[in-house]
Amino acid sequence: MDTALPQLAGPDPHSPPGNPSVTVAPPLIQAENLKTFFPVTGGVFRKTVGHVKAVNGVSLEIGAGEVVSVVGESGCGKSTLGYSLLGLTLPTAGILRLNGQALDITRTSSWTPYRKDFQIVFQDPYTSLNPRHTVLEILSGPMRAHGLVDARHARDAVAALLAKVGLPPDYMHRFPHAFSGGQRQRLGIARALGLKPKLIVCDEVVAALDVSVQAQIVQLLMELRAELGLSLLFISHDLSLVKSISDKVLVMYLGKIVEAAEAQALFVAPRHPYSAALLESIPTLDRARKPKLLGGEIPSPVDLPPGCAFAGRCPSAQIRCREETPVLRSLNVTQAACHYPLADAAELNLSGPTRV
Amino acid sequence: MGSPSTPLLEVQDLSIGFESETGTVAITDRVSFRINAGEAYGLVGESGCGKSVTCLALLKLLPNPGGKILSGKILFRGRDILSMPPQELRALRGGDIAMIFQEPGAALNPLWPIRKQLLEPFRYHEFSGDPERRILTLLERVGIPDPPRVLDAYPHQLSGGMLQRVMIAMALALNPKLLIADEPTTALDVTVQAQIMELIGELRREFGAAVLMITHNLNLVAQYADRVGVMYAGRVVEEGSVGDVLDAPAHPYSQGLLAALPRLTGGRQAPRPIPGQVPRPSDYVSGCRFRDRCAHAFAPCGEQPPSREISTGHSVACFLGMEKAVA
C-alpha cells in the first residue's frame, strides 16, 4: 500500500537558498493593498448603489518554489483574489508586481507577457475543458499560441505532457467526455504545465473529486513542484488538505487577510479568533475532539460593519473591535489582523505538536 | 409496531439496476444493512458506489423510467416498502420517513415562498395541531433568526445554510421515525456544516428519530454516526460500529480511504492516494471489485468474498485473514 511519497516536510530544494552571497530573485508575485470591487446596481436606471468588496486591500508575496494557500469560507474573496492576481478579473486598485515588474492593473493586456509564467487550474474539471476539442487540441493550444511548439511537434509535446500527469499518450485523440473527474483535472494541470510556468494558481482543484482521487491529484502536484520547482497558490476551503501541503497559509475573511502564517505555526496555534474558530469547527476522525460551533453567518460584503468584520461572530470581541478596524500586524512568527490576538504556542505552553 | 428486536429499517440483499443501451446494468449488488430505532447510521463511499441510489430506493424514488429494483427487500418496522400499496407508501413518505437532500437550493421550489413549502407536508398527512404554529416553532427550533420574515421569503433570498435549515424543518414537520440525509452538508461551508450536523444530532436526541446519513466524508461519520457501512462499487464491503471500522478498518478499501484522508490533527503527513480509479458499473468485474486497486489481492479474490463477522457487529467482505480457509 505504501507508495513513494514526495517529501513534504523540511526545506524545499527549490526555494531560494538562504545563502546571503546569492542575489535573491524578486518574489514571483507581490501584491500591495490589492482591491477588487464589483458594482451593485439597483433602481430603474441600474445606478451603482454600492460595491461588493470581494478583495479589500490584500498584500501578499509568493516566492519561487513556495506553496501558499488561501483559505476561508465561500464568499470570502479567495477565488477573486486568485483571478485578480492573474488579471482574469481586473483589480480595482492596488499595486501588483509579477517577476518584480509593476504592471498597469487597469488593462488586461498588461498581463499578456506574463501569461506563460503564471497559469491557473480551475475548480470544475467538467466546465473548464472545451467538450468539442480533443485532448491534443486542448493541450497543444496554449503551447502553439505562445510559439513553444509548431504543428509538427505538437503530438510529441502533448504525449510528453500526458506522461507527466500520469495519462497514457494515446488518450490525446479522445474528447473530454471520455475522462473521469480526476483524469480531467490531470488534463487541466497538463494544460497549465505545457507553458513551463513558474507559478500555478490552483482554484479548489480537488474540491469536486473523491477522497482517493483527491489524494492522487495532490500527490501529482507535489511531485511536479519538487521536480520543476513550481510555486503554487492553492485556493481551498479544506484546511486539512492545506495543512498537508502548504508552506504559508493566508486566512481570508470578507475580502481581507486576517491571518498570514507559516503553515506549521497556524495549525499549532492560530492567533486570529476566526482562524481558531475555523479550525475548531472541522470534524475529524478523533471522536474525543468535538467540533466547536461558530455561530452566525458571514455579513454581506456590500454593507461591511464598522470595525472588525468578524466582531459580530467573535467570542472575544470587545467594544474597540466594533469601532476600530484592526490591521494586519506582525506577532512573533505570524501576522494577524486582530486587536486581541490569541495566545501563541509558547504562551500556551504546549507540550504536544498540536492544539486543534 | 414490530417487536423490540425488529430493527426500524432493514435492507436485505437490495440490487438496483439502471436501463442502458446495452441492457440493464446493476448499480448495487445485494446491499444489506439494518438501522435500529434512534440510531445514526452512516453509509459512506465515493461517487458512483451506489449509496445515493440505495437511499432513493428506500422510498421508491428511483428515476422512472430508468431505475428499477432487481431483487431484495426493504423492511420498515417489518413491512416491505417495495410491495406496499401506493396510499400506504405516500403516508410513509414525509411522514414516518423524511428525507433531506444534498442541494437545498435545488430541492426547494424557487417559485414558492418558504411558508407554502413548509405547509406542504400537512396537506398530505394528518396532523392534529395548527400547521402554521407548528412551522413557526420548527423554524425557531432549527435556529432560523426571525422566522416570520423567513416564512414570506423565497428560496433565492436565503443562504445555503438557511435553506438547509428550512429543509430540515420540513423533514421534521411530522416527527419522522427515520430521517434520511443524503450528503446534507456537502454544499455548505465547514462552519455551517458543523452547525447543521449538531442540529441534526440534537433533534435526534430530542425526537428519538433514527438517522441514515449518506456521505463521502469519513470525518462526519466519525463524529455523528453510531454505526457505519462502507460501500465500494455497489457493494457493502465493511460494516460495524464507528469505533471498529474507523479505528481498526479490516477491508483494504476502508484502510485506503482513511489513508487518503488529509488529517487536520497530528503531525504533517501527506494523504496517500489509492491507485487507480473507481470502476463504472458497466465495467464491474466478477469476484472482489476492489482487487485491481488492492495491494493485498491474491488468487482467491477472483471469487466474490462473502461477508463474515470478524468481531461482534463488525463484518467485512474480504478474503484477507482467512487465507487458510481459502487456500
What does this structure look like?
The complex is a heterodimer of chains A (356) and B (327). Chain A is of the alpha/beta class. Chain A has ten helices and twelve strands. In chain A, a hairpin with a 2-residue loop joins β9 and β10. Chain A is globular and about 70 Å long. Chain B is an alpha/beta fold. In chain B, the strands form two sheets. Chain B has an eight-stranded mixed β-sheet with strand order 6-7-8-3-9-10-12-11, with helices on both faces. In chain B, strands 2-1-4-5 form a four-stranded antiparallel β-sheet, covered by helices on one side. Classes of the chains: A alpha/beta (356), B alpha/beta (327). At the A-B interface, α5, α6, α7 and α8 of A face α8, α9, α10 and α11 of B.
Brief summary of the model shown:
The complex is a heterodimer of chains A (356) and B (327). Chain A has 356 residues and is α/β, with parallel strands linked by helices.
Number of strands of chain B: 12
Q: Most extensive interface, residues per chain?
A: A-B, 54 and 51 residues
Look at the helices and sheets of chain B and give the structural class: alpha/beta
Count of β-strands of chain A: 12
Given helix and strand content, the structural type of chain A is alpha/beta
Uncertain ranges of chain B: none
Q: Give the overall average pLDDT of chain A.
A: 86
The neighbouring-strand order within the major sheet of chain B is 6-7-8-3-9-10-12-11
Oligomerization status of the protein chains: heterodimer
- How would you sum up the major sheet of chain A? 8 strands, mixed
Outline the biggest β-sheet of chain B: 8 strands, mixed
Number of helices of chain A: 10
Span from first to last CA of chain B?
47 Å
Report mean pLDDT of chain B, rounded to a whole number.
89
